Predict the structure.
Amino acid sequence: MIVIKVPSVGESISEVTLVKWIKKEGEYAKRDEVLCELESEKATFELTAEQAGTLHQIAEEGATLKIGDVACEIDETASAPAGMPAPSAPAEKSAPKEVAVSHAPATPPATPAKSTPLAAAIIQDKHLDTKSLSGTGSGGKILKQDVINLLSKTKPSQAAIDRTERKDKMSNLRKTVSRRLVEAKNSTAMLTTFNEVDMTKIMEVRKLYKDVFKETHTVNLGFMSFFTKACCTALLEWPAVNAYIDGEQIVYHEYCDISIAVSAPKGLVVPVI
């Protein structure tokens, strides 16, 4: 049994987070094949098999491991499954033999499509199925634009939204990012950016229905309702924006609370819709 430990990834790194297992429990892994993904506060890296054999997982996904902790074990005595060549043993030196050489072009083995780090982050955040993604990068690699194109075709669900919350444990990298962002907010001047938006369609809709809306609801049809709808749609598409950090967890909301300032007879109030 070969013990695979968490390697040292830097002088200042003392612990890492096991993001996900690539190989399942009891699955046969070839030599140098990727077993799992680890994430430190600075980077993400992979843990590979030192020898071919059957995988026995020790650490669970999401667990925080110290440098040198045991992540898994490899049973190198296990035989390869049917259809998979067993690892070759070192051959003894012998007299050279004539080997027939084929000049036909070799067909490279098919490898599973990988994704760029940014695309992988969006896939994980959106819980997308990679089977529905076709990569346009080199070797079929999934790029950021491929994921965005898929999201643009998938409209957010219009079903009733319940007031549920979902909690995910932060990795070391996310903890470092959140800490650095707070430090930057407290020590630097925060600026506001302005983006231009084409309002032509909204202007046409408002012009078409403003009279009917005024007769029905006795109030004018302003732009705030369109802005609120756009914000809700955006929050459904990007739930990380509609979340907050609670200790070492990120709390995601399955609903949208929008506060709108309203001029009331007693002054300005901000009700939550």
